[in-house]
Every structure is written in structure tokens, then in C-alpha cells.
Design brief:
Blueprint (H helix, E strand, L loop, with lengths): L1 H31 L13 H11 L10 H18 L7 H15 L2 H15 L2 H10 L5 H14 L1 H4 L2 E8 L2 E9 L3 H6 L2 H20 L3 E6 L4 E6 L21 H6 L6
InterPro entries: D27-like (IPR038938), D27-like_C (IPR025114)
GO molecular function, one term: cis-trans isomerase activity
Pfam family, one: D27-like_C
Length: 263
């Protein structure tokens, strides 16, 4: 009789221990199980997104300019400052952008383009331009591809990393396009008006005037990329979408100086 009672007691004790362990395991599993939290977000205004996405969509690039880059930047910056009469307090690329900002604030769009043209003519002596015109034929596949390759090698300090791409030109494939992944000048200025009036417009005129070659720049203000197309005539400013593009919502110039970035 006693043996039977002891056996029943042990059996009950084992069952209780098993039940306790199972409950303990379930509780630990519930405590440490991953939890999903639902968060409700306010809808984004599409207009605000489109007007500011380019200035805040990605982190700012960092450039480690070498001696050639610094020399070229300072040379062009000095030319712009001499043309505008503005003395920059910054050095390097910051000084170049500061001089460009000063021109953008003081002069109207037509005057801005003329100032940059004068600065480019000062930076590139006429005898060098004349030599290039004499050596290279005005309209040839070789010349267009040569200028595209030359741009990627010697002007990355100004526009940022770039590469040569193909396009169809008069029914055949040519490597006459320079693709800029993210324009350094547009990123630093963060202003559509400075891009069109201090870079795109005067550059198109300068290349055509200096080398007799049509040159069309197609900036993408959404991702700050740009295409430079050698051999293609640009449309008139009134028909060019870039010149009717509104400026960024977070444009530094319009916020600081309460001005309309006219293009």
C-alpha cells in the first residue's frame, strides 16, 4: 500500500515538473519573440517631393582634389573673380562657387552668361583654341569622340566623375556623349538658375564659338546627372526644357536672398 502511494506521488511530481517546464519555455518564447509594430505615416505631397528631391535625396559627394585639380579650380576661380570684380574669401572649389553665386545675385541671366564666356576666354588663350581648330576637323566622328574623351580626363575636377557613352549620330553609333553621374557644380550650388546661366548656356556657346562644333548639355535636375552631347545643336532657350525648370524648393540662393532664380 505504501509503495503504491509513493509511486503515485512520484508520478504526480514528474508530471508537475514537466508541466512547469513547458509553461516556462512558452513564456520565454513569447518574451523574446520578435514583435512587429505598425506605423502610420502621413502621405507625401508629390509637388513638394519633386521640388526638393534633388537637393536632399542622397548624401553629398566628397572630393579629394589632386594638384592638377586644385590648380585648374584656382585658375578658373581667379578668372571668374577677375571678370566679376568679386573677391572670394574662400579657396578651392568653394571659392569658385562663391564667385559664381556673387555673379548670380548681381547680374541678370544674359549678363551672367556673358561673364562666364569672358572668364572662359580668359582661362583658355586664343592661340590654344586656334591651334585646336586648325588641327581637328570641325565635323567628324574622330573630333566628336576626341572632345568627349578629353572632357572626361581633363574636366572631371569641374563637373565630377564622368564617362563616355555611345549615341546614334546620323544613323551610326558614336562615342560622342559625356555622362556625368552627379554634377559637382549643381550639387554645390543647389540652384537651377546657376546651372543654366553659369554653366549650360555659356558652355554651349563657348564650344560652338571656339571649335565650330555644336554642343548640347542636358541636365537632369532630379538626380543631378547631366549629358554633354558633342555634335548636337541645342534648341533655343525658349524651347529648351532646362530653361523653364523651376528651382529647387531648398535652393540656397532663393532662401538666403529672397530672389527668384530666373532662367
Amino acid at each position: 500500500m505504501e509503495a503504491k502511494l509513493i509511486l503515485q506521488f512520484k508520478t504526480s511530481l514528474v508530471k508537475n515538473q514537466i508541466h512547469y517546464k513547458n509553461n516556462y519555455r512558452r513564456q520565454r518564447t513569447m518574451m523574446h519573440a520578435p514583435r512587429t509594430i505598425a506605423v502610420m505615416l502621413e502621405p507625401v505631397n508629390n509637388q513638394d517631393l519633386s521640388s526638393s528631391s534633388s537637393s536632399s535625396s542622397s548624401s553629398k559627394n566628397v572630393y579629394n582634389d589632386n594638384w592638377f585639380d586644385r590648380a585648374a579650380i584656382n585658375y578658373l576661380s581667379t578668372s571668374v573673380q577677375a571678370t566679376t570684380g568679386f573677391k572670394s574669401t574662400s579657396s578651392g572649389y568653394d571659392g569658385l562657387v562663391e564667385a559664381a553665386r556673387a555673379a548670380h545675385r548681381v547680374f541678370d541671366p544674359a549678363e551672367q552668361q556673358q561673364i562666364v564666356l569672358q572668364a572662359l576666354e580668359t582661362a583658355f588663350p586664343s592661340f590654344i583654341l586656334g591651334f585646336i581648330r586648325a588641327v581637328l576637323p570641325k565635323s567628324s566622328k574622330f573630333t566628336r569622340e576626341y572632345f568627349a574623351s578629353f572632357t572626361t580626363v581633363f574636366f572631371a575636377w569641374l563637373v565630377g566623375p564622368c564617362e563616355v557613352r555611345e549615341s546614334e549620330f546620323e544613323g551610326r553609333r558614336e562615342k560622342n556623349v559625356v555622362y556625368i553621374k552627379k554634377c559637382r557644380f549643381l550639387e554645390e550650388s543647389n540652384c537651377v538658375g546657376m546651372c543654366t546661366n553659369l554653366c549650360k548656356g555659356p558652355s554651349q556657346v563657348f564650344v560652338k564659338k571656339s571649335f565650330g562644333m555644336p554642343f548640347y548639355m542636358v541636365p537632369n535636375f532630379e538626380d543631378m546627372s547631366c549629358e554633354m552631347i558633342y555634335g548636337q545643336e541645342p534648341p533655343q532657350p525658349t524651347d529648351d526644357p532646362a530653361f523653364s525648370q523651376p528651382c529647387y524648393k531648398l535652393c540656397k540662393e532663393s532662401k538666403r536672398h529672397h530672389q527668384k532664380c530666373a532662367t
